[in-house]
C-alpha cells in the first residue's frame, strides 16, 4: 500500500521544494567529490591509495586532546564571547607578533568554525550583489562557490607558467565592480609561495585600484623553502587585508573546525555580525584547546613540516622521473602537475589512474578554467603509501 504511494509522495515533495536561485549557482565540493569516488571503490575492496585529501595524516597532538578533555571537565561547555575566547584571541595576537612581527589586538580577531567559514564570513561582509572578486587560478574550488553564494561574481585570472602572480593582468581585469582580490599562499593546489617582490608588485595594483584583499594563509606554517610573509605585512596593505587562517592544517585539527580571521576593526565589526547571527561562535572547549596548540605544540609543527618536506622531495623526484611538467612546491602539501607531456588523454589522467592503478588524485577541472589537463596530488599520506603510489603510477605509464 505504502509502496504504491511513493511516486505520489515524490511528486508532492518535488512541488514543495525548488532550490532557491542562490543555491542553483553553486555546486558540490570538487575535492570532496574526488575523495568520495575513492571511498566507494575502497568499500568494494579495492586497495586505493588516496593522494586526494587535503588533510594531514598525523594525529592531533596529544597535548591539544588533553587540553580539550580538561576544558570539558572544567565546565567550558557554555557560550563564550561571540568573537571567541579572549584568551585564545590574546594568544593569536601574541603569536602574530612573535612569528611575523605584525600587530593585531584581540578585538581585531574573530575565532571562526574553520577557515572555510572564515572565507564565507569575509566575502559576506564585503560583497554587494554583483560585486566582482578576482581569484588567481588555479585556486581552491570553494572560493568560486562561496563568492557566488555571497552574491558576488568570481573573476578568474590565470597565473603564469610557474604559477606566479601576474599583476599586470590582474590590473587589466579590474572594473568598477571589482571589490576584492582573493589570495592564497602557500597555495592549494600548487604549493607555490610568493616572495616579497611578488607581493609588493601586487600590492601596488591593490593600492592604485583601491581593492580589498582576502588573504587565505591557512598553509602559512607549512613552508619548506623560503620565507612566508603575511600579506597584511606588506606596506600599506594592513588596512585593506582580511586574513583567514586556522588550526586544521598546522595542528592536524581538521575535524575540530576551528579557524580565525583578523583585519581592520571596521570590517571585523561587520564580520562579527555575520558570526553572531549564524554560528554564534565555535565550541568553547575547542577554543580553549587551541590555546594549547599555539603555546605548547611548536615541536609537533616542526616535526610535521620536516616530514612533509621529505615527502615533497620524494614526490617531486617521482614526478620528474615520470616526465611530468611540474613546479616544485615550496609549501602546503600539494603538487599540481600537467599530464599533457606524459599521457595521451591528459583530461582523463586522474580518472584512468584511479580505475587502472587504484591511485586517487584530484582532477584539475575544479581549480579553475583551463586546468583540465592538470591534476592535484596531495602528499598528506605516509611515505610508504607515497612510494607505492609512485610505483603504481610508473607502471600505469608503462615506465617499469
Ligand atoms: C586554501 C584552503 N583554505 C581553507 C581551507 C579550509 O580549512 P578549514 O578546515 O579550517 O575550514 C582549506 C582546506 O582544504 C584550504 O585548502
In angstroms, what separates the terminal alpha carbons? 60 Å
The CATH superfamily name of the largest domain is: Type I PLP-dependent aspartate aminotransferase-like (Major domain)
How many strands, what sense, and barrel or not for the largest sheet? 7 strands, mixed
- Known CATH architecture of the largest domain: 3-Layer(aba) Sandwich
Please count the helical segments.
14
Strand line-up in the sheet with most strands: 2-8-7-6-5-3-4
Low-confidence stretches: none
General form: globular
CATH class of the largest domain: Alpha Beta
Percent helix among the residues? 40-55%
Question: How is this structure best described in words?
Answer:
- The protein is built from 14 helices and 12 strands.
- With 400 residues, the chain is an alpha/beta fold.
- It folds into 2 domains: 22-59 and 300-396, Alpha-Beta Complex (Aspartate Aminotransferase, domain 1), CATH 3.90.1150.10; 63-296, Type I PLP-dependent aspartate aminotransferase-like (Major domain) (Aspartate Aminotransferase, domain 2, 3-Layer(aba) Sandwich), CATH 3.40.640.
- Strands 2-8-7-6-5-3-4 form a 7-stranded mixed sheet, with helices on both faces.
- Strand 5, helix 9 (196-208) and strand 6 (212-216) form a beta-alpha-beta unit.
- The radius of gyration is 22 Å and the shape is globular.
- The chain starts with a helix and ends with a helix.
- Pyridoxal-5'-phosphate binds next to helix 6.
Amino acid at each position: 500500500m505504502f509502496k504504491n504511494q511513493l511516486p505520489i509522495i515524490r511528486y508532492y515533495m518535488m512541488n514543495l521544494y525548488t532550490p532557491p536561485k542562490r543555491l542553483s549557482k553553486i555546486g558540490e565540493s570538487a575535492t570532496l567529490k574526488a575523495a568520495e569516488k575513492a571511498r566507494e571503490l575502497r568499500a568494494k575492496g579495492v586497495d586505493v591509495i588516496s593522494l586526494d585529501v587535503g588533510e594531514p595524516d598525523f594525529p592531533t597532538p596529544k597535548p591539544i586532546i588533553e587540553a580539550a578533555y580538561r576544558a570539558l571537565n572544567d565546565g567550558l561547555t557554555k557560550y563564550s564571547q561571540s568573537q571567541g575566547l579572549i584568551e585564545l584571541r590574546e594568544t593569536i595576537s601574541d603569536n602574530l607578533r612573535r612569528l611575523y612581527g605584525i600587530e593585531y589586538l584581540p578585538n581585531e580577531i574573530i575565532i571562526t568554525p574553520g577557515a572555510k567559514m572564515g572565507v564565507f564570513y569575509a566575502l559576506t561582509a564585503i560583497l554587494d550583489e554583483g560585486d566582482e572578486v578576482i581569484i588567481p587560478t588555479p585556486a581552491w574550488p570553494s572560493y568560486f562557490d562561496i563568492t557566488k553564494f555571497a552574491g558576488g561574481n568570481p573573476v578568474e585570472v590565470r597565473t603564469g607558467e610557474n604559477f606566479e602572480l601576474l599583476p599586470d593582468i590582474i590590473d587589466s581585469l579590474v572594473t568598477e565592480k571589482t571589490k576584492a582580490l582573493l589570495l592564497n599562499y602557500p597555495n592549494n593546489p600548487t604549493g607555490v609561495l610568493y616572495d616579497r617582490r611578488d607581493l609588493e608588485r601586487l600590492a601596488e595594483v591593490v593600492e592604485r585600484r583601491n581593492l580589498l584583499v582576502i588573504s587565505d594563509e591557512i598553509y602559512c606554517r607549512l613552508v619548506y623553502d623560503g620565507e612566508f610573509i603575511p600579506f597584511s605585512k606588506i606596506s600599506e596593505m594592513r588596512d585593506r587585508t582580511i586574513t583567514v587562517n586556522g588550526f586544521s592544517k598546522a595542528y592536524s585539527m581538521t575535524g575540530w573546525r576551528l579557524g580565525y580571521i583578523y583585519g581592520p576593526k571596521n570590517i571585523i565589526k561587520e564580520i562579527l555580525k555575520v558570526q553572531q547571527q549564524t554560528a554564534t561562535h565555535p565550541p568553547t572547549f575547542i577554543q580553549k584547546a587551541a590555546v594549547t596548540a599555539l603555546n605548547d605544540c611548536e615541536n609537533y609543527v616542526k616535526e610535521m613540516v620536516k616530514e612533509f618536506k621529505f615527502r615533497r622531495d620524494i614526490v617531486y623526484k617521482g614526478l620528474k622521473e615520470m616526465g611530468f611538467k611540474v613546479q616544485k612546491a615550496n609549501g602546503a602539501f600539494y603538487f599540481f602537475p600537467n599530464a599533457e607531456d606524459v599521457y595521451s588523454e591528459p583530461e582523463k589522467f586522474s580518472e584512468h589512474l584511479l580505475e587502472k592503478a587504484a591511485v586517487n588524485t584530484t582532477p584539475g577541472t575544479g581549480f579553475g578554467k583551463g586546468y583540465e589537463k592538470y591534476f592535484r596530488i596531495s602528499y598528506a599520506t605516509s611515505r610508504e603509501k607515497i612510494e607505492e603510489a609512485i610505483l603504481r603510477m610508473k607502471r600505469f605509464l608503462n615506465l617499469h
